[in-house]
Automatic annotation (TrEMBL):
Reactions listed under catalytic activity: adenosine + H2O + H(+) = inosine + NH4(+); 2'-deoxyadenosine + H2O + H(+) = 2'-deoxyinosine + NH4(+)
Gene Ontology MF annotations: adenosine deaminase activity; zinc ion binding
Cofactor (UniProt): Zn(2+)
Leading EC class: hydrolase
Chain positions recorded as Zn(2+) binding sites: H19, H21, H203, D295
Protein name: Adenosine deaminase
One Pfam short name: A_deaminase
GO CC, any one term: cytosol
Alphabetized InterPro entries for the sequence: A_deaminase, A_deaminase_dom, Ado/ade_deaminase, Metal_Hydrolase
Function per UniProt: Catalyzes the hydrolytic deamination of adenosine and 2-deoxyadenosine.
Length: 359
């Protein structure tokens, strides 16, 4: 049997992360510190390990709506400039420690203004944190600005993303409960972004099925899909393993539309029943442009390396598969083509070559 990459080895590989929520990746100790400093008194416990376990367990509800309730506690302590700078800096540090060389981290500016910050001040604080936390650590972190799909501020947030596009904001997203909130509610924002030649991804096919994916791509013009797991509803697999793609699935594959897959998160929200049955296995086999992501490192108690290690364990993936996921992600990033290429050829390929050589 060929050697399978171990968690320690995977940590050393140069990895790329496209789907990670800033408010879903706060260190538990920081949540507690910030609650004390900012006078937030809603935490379920003041003990670090208990709080870590609480987030993980409370997120295992099997429903996206209930999964999202836990964010009240992280968002609750991220309402000052100092808190946002700290959380963003620690995010960059934690990702760098995990061996991530390029990350796009998202958050919803509109959720961080209850302490009096303006949307611009929120964005500036997070960018400053990413700058501080990345410095000298061999990682580049770009921001994606998210609008909440049940709210009506997407146009404002899209304009904010365009205003900050040259100083670290690389794209736009919508998130929140999916059922009942189709992406077309925000069509004006997506059309504005297209006119501005800006990039965006849409959470779709997680808490709701094919219509959401279809709208995200064919009405809204999404560059990438957040999750997109339900695309398998448009694929029929025969007993001999051959697959027949419906028109939407074929379109997604033919157009190389990146799928930002987040396996552990999907098990928690009920978007998939087990890792072995997770659509990522089939989609990878069919050469969809699959990428592997964390979604919420705190709620899922995970990291890119851990997601990779779980996939290795479940599907028997080797270094070539992990490199394929990584190159897919880098190709799908929202930074300019020449910069993506430089990371693929100068960092990712040499890094994986060295690990494969050692294995
Ligand atoms: O998996 C997800 N699906 C949909 N929305 C999410 C997910 N994870 C986090 N958020 C939502 O995005 C906001 C901004 O980061 C979070 O506050 C949370 O409400
Ligand atoms: Zn997400």
């Amino acid at each position: 049997m060929t050697h399978q990459p171990t968690l320690d080895e995977i940590r050393k590989a140069p990895k790329v992360l496209l789907h990670d929520h800033l408010d879903g990746g706060v260190r538990p100790e920081t949540v507690i510190d910030l609650a004390r400093e900012t006078g937030y008194d809603g935490l379920p416990t003041g003990d670090v390990e208990e709080l870590r376990a609480w987030f993980r367990e409370a997120s295992d509800s099997g429903s996206l709506e209930r999964y999202l309730e836990t964010f009240a506690h992280t968002v609750g302590v991220m309402q000052t400039r100092a808190a946002l700078v700290r959380v963003a800096a620690e995010c960059a540090e934690d990702l760098a420690d995990d061996g991530v060389v390029y990350a796009e981290v998202r958050y919803a500016p509109e959720l961080h203004t209850s302490g009096g910050l303006s949307l611009d001040q929120v964005v500036e604080a997070v960018l400053e944190g990413f700058r501080q936390g990345s410095e000298g650590r061999g990682i580049r972190v770009g921001a994606l600005l998210t609008a909440m799909r049940h709210q009506a501020r997407s146009m404002e947030i899209a304009e904010l993303a365009v205003r900050y596009r040259d100083v670290g904001v690389v794209g736009f997203d919508i998130a929140g409960a999916e059922a009942g909130y189709p992406p077309t509610r925000h069509l004006d924002a997506f059309e504005y972004l297209q006119r501005e030649n800006a990039h965006f991804t849409i959470h779709a096919g997680e808490g709701f099925g094919l219509p959401s994916i279809w709208q995200a791509i064919q009405w809204c013009g999404a560059d990438r899909l957040g999750h997109g797991v339900r695309i398998i509803d448009d694929i029929q697999v025969a007993e001999d393993g051959t697959a027949k793609l419906g028109r939407l699935a074929a379109y997604v594959r033919d157009k190389r539309i990146p799928l930002e897959m987040c396996p552990t998160s999907n098990l928690q929200t009920g978007a998939a029943t087990s890792l072995a049955e997770h659509p990522i296995g089939l989609l990878r086999r069919l050469y969809f442009r699959v990428t592997v992501n964390t979604d919420n490192r705190l709620m899922s108690d995970t990291s890119v390396s851990r997601e990779f290690a779980r996939l290795v364990e479940t599907f028997g993936y080797g270094w070539d598969d992990l490199q394929w996921f990584t190159v897919n992600a880098m190709k799908s990033a929202f930074i300019p083509f020449d910069e993506r290429l430089a990371l693929i050829n100068g960092v990712i390929k040499p890094g994986f070559a060295q690990l494969k050589w050692q294995a």
